[in-house]
Write a structure and sequence with these properties.
The chain is an alpha+beta fold and about 210 residues long. The chain has helices spanning about 1-5, 25-30, 45-75, 120-135, 140-145, 145-160, and strands spanning about 15-20, 35-40, 100-105, 110-120, 170-175, 180-185, 195, 200-205. The strands form three sheets. Strands 3-4-5-6 form a four-stranded antiparallel beta sheet, with helices on one face. The longest helix has 30 residues, at about 45-75.
Length: about 210
């Protein structure tokens, strides 16, 4: 039976029930793919505990898969620039999160970058983060070079596919490697920190209109 279930690509955990004298059979069943076993005569508390344990294991496995998928949504490669070096790294408070950053080549010598935070925590926020990422990745180079048009488009796409109680804040910047000019828009996000070569620290609080 276990072999047949596995052949059907069954994803639910398999818990077998066995008599006192058949522990060896239960062990063999687990070797073939069962997740756990309960001995007869069973105890309801023990049975419920086993089911809950397997449910937690499955949930954790799904979260680990979601974490792996989310990490792949972050930029895996960067385009070399002549006048700056840049990098990004996300460390979620939980297994997955609504934090988002991205680097988007916007044409010759121009780099667009995004830093955003989706409201909420956990799986729901991670799904909205993926939605926000898709909204940016679907934009053309010409749109990336026009922050006003870009953010209107992203806002509409995100709003149309997001529950009204959720939102995202973000910082969008455009860096021109030829002129060393940075243009940016702050959409409700915390102002970024600028560290000057002389050690002084500034908050980028001016908004582009």
């Amino acid at each position: 039976m276990i072999t047949r279930l596995n052949a059907q690509n069954n994803t639910a955990p398999i818990v077998v029930m066995t008599a006192w004298g058949n522990v060896e059979l239960a062990v063999e069943a687990m070797r073939r793919g069962a997740s756990d076993f309960v001995q007869k005569p069973w105890d309801n508390a023990r049975l419920l505990d086993t089911i809950q344990k397997q449910s937690r294991r499955r949930e954790q496995s799904e979260l680990e898969l979601a974490r792996h998928v989310q990490q792949k949504l972050f930029p895996q490669k960067t385009v070399a620039m002549k006048t700056i070096t840049y990098a990004g790294h996300c460390v979620p408070a939980r297994v997955v999160s609504g934090d988002y950053y991205d680097f988007l080549p916007a044409g010759s010598g121009v780099l667009a970058f995004v830093l955003a935070d989706v409201s909420g925590k956990g799986m729901a926020a991670a799904l909205l983060m993926a939605n926000l990422q898709a909204s940016f990745r679907s934009q053309s180079n010409s749109t990336l070079l026009d922050p006003g048009a870009l953010l209107k488009s992203v806002n509409k796409l995100f709003y149309d596919s997001t529950p009204v109680e959720h939102y995202a804040t973000l910082f969008f910047g455009l860096y021109d490697d030829r002129t060393r000019e940075l243009r940016y828009v702050n959409c409700g996000h915390l102002p970024p920190v600028v560290l000057r070569s002389n050690g002084t620290v500034e908050l980028a609080v001016r908004l582009e209109t």
